[in-house]
Specification:
By secondary structure, the chain is α/β, with parallel strands linked by helices. It folds into 2 domains: 127 residues, 3-Layer(aba) Sandwich (Rossmann fold), CATH 3.40.50.2300; 185 residues, Rossmann fold (3-Layer(aba) Sandwich), CATH 3.40.50. It is built from 13 helices and 14 strands. Strands 2-1-3-4-5 form a 5-stranded parallel sheet, with helices on both faces. Strands 7-10-13-6-14 form a 5-stranded parallel sheet. Helix 3 links the parallel strand 3 and strand 4. Helix 6 packs across helix 7. The chain is elongated, with a radius of gyration of 27 Å. The two termini are 33 Å apart.
Length: 333
């Protein structure tokens, strides 16, 4: 059984035939072409797990082929460059263009085969990661599956909101699935390739929640790490920050969070320079925040910042018709 499908691009007939035979002997299904133009034509008809190309060839050279290949087929497929006339500048250019490796002729069989195996393994891991991400995305949606009008309407609204970038407040009882809904919104949004960070505001003392959210500079307080710490807001760059039980957030932290939402910048604890941040905020609570505002426990201005749109997750007792579907889901798991 072949270990992977390799496209070899080499204009030197003797070297090309020899390397193709070596690769086939090692178990790789190898297709050999004599030019970059021929290789691009073959690629329109076949898929490959990896490409090995010479640098110096008549017509389209190796770098031009690599750039065209990346433009047409993306960065997932590893490409290894080989040349008989190497230079440091050439190697740097190849790496900048997206090459996985760079070899000088004559090629050491063991070294290039080891590089090929590493590259193919990396490709397999990428594919497995993509499949896993898709399975996780689908399973997250399934956790709030149901046939009731309530749940159908909730997911339709959540899917529509995912396409925008508004701050969302999710309300509902503990255990009703607020974080699941927040993850669903993130996964359906343009921010899905970027991180999703969830923080339960109930779980941290004041000093800890502040450094967890905003980070801190080294030596800013007793016990601080010398290198400091990057906060979750900054780490969520381009992604989504989910603040669960935001009603329990200490008033002093509420003030700092409000400023972040107003200015789109943060100042780590002990820092003096504002850092630009780009994240989408989804908050959740099992409390009536309007009552918390009346009791002076929650800032009204922050409430309106986080509550651009509100979603309510109904408990299962309000959608009993969903019980069979949920039971079936967990039995299948």
């Amino acid at each position: 059984m072949a270990n992977g499908k390799i496209l070899l691009v080499e204009d030197d007939e003797d070297f090309g035939r020899s390397l193709a035979l070596i690769l086939k002997h090692k178990g790789f299904a190898t297709t050999w072409t004599g030019s970059g133009e021929q290789a691009l034509a073959v690629l329109t008809e076949k898929n490959f797990d990896m490409v090995i190309t010479d640098m110096l060839m008549p017509g389209m050279n190796g770098l031009e082929f690599l750039r065209q290949f990346r433009e047409n087929y993306g960065t997932d497929t590893p490409v290894v460059m080989i040349t008989g006339y190497g230079s440091v500048t050439e190697a740097v250019e190849a790496m900048k263009a997206g090459a996985f490796g760079y070899f000088l002729k004559p090629v050491n069989q063991d070294e290039i085969c080891l590089t090929i195996e590493k590259a193919l393994e990396m490709g397999r891991l990428k594919n497995e990661n993509l499949l896993l991400r898709q399975e996780i995305k689908e399973s997250k949606g399934d956790l709030l599956i149901g046939e009731s009008p309530l749940i159908r309407c909730l997911f339709q609204e959540a899917a529509a909101l995912a396409k925008s970038d508004v701050n969302i407040l999710i309300t509902g009882e503990s255990g009703s699935g607020k974080e699941v809904l927040a993850r669903f919104i993130h996964d359906q949004s343009p921010r899905s390739p970027r991180p999703f960070f969830a923080i339960n505001c109930q779980a941290y003392a004041l000093s800890l929640i502040e450094s967890e959210l905003f980070g801190y500079r080294g030596g800013s307080f007793t016990g601080a790490k010398a290198k400091g710490k990057v906060g979750k807001i900054e780490s969520a760059a381009g992604g989504t920050l989910f603040l669960d039980e935001i009603g329990d957030l200490d008033p002093t932290v509420q003030v700092k969070l409000l400023r972040v939402l107003e200015t789109k910048t943060i100042e780590p604890v002990g820092g003096t320079t504002a850092i630009p941040v780009d994240f989408r905020l989804i908050s959740a609570t099992n409390q009536d925040l309007t009552l918390c505002i009346a009791e002076k426990k929650f800032r009204e201005d922050l409430y309106y910042r986080i509550n651009t749109v509100k979603l309510y997750v109904p408990p299962l007792r309000e959608r009993k018709e969903d019980i069979p579907a949920l039971a079936g889901h967990f039995i299948r798991r």
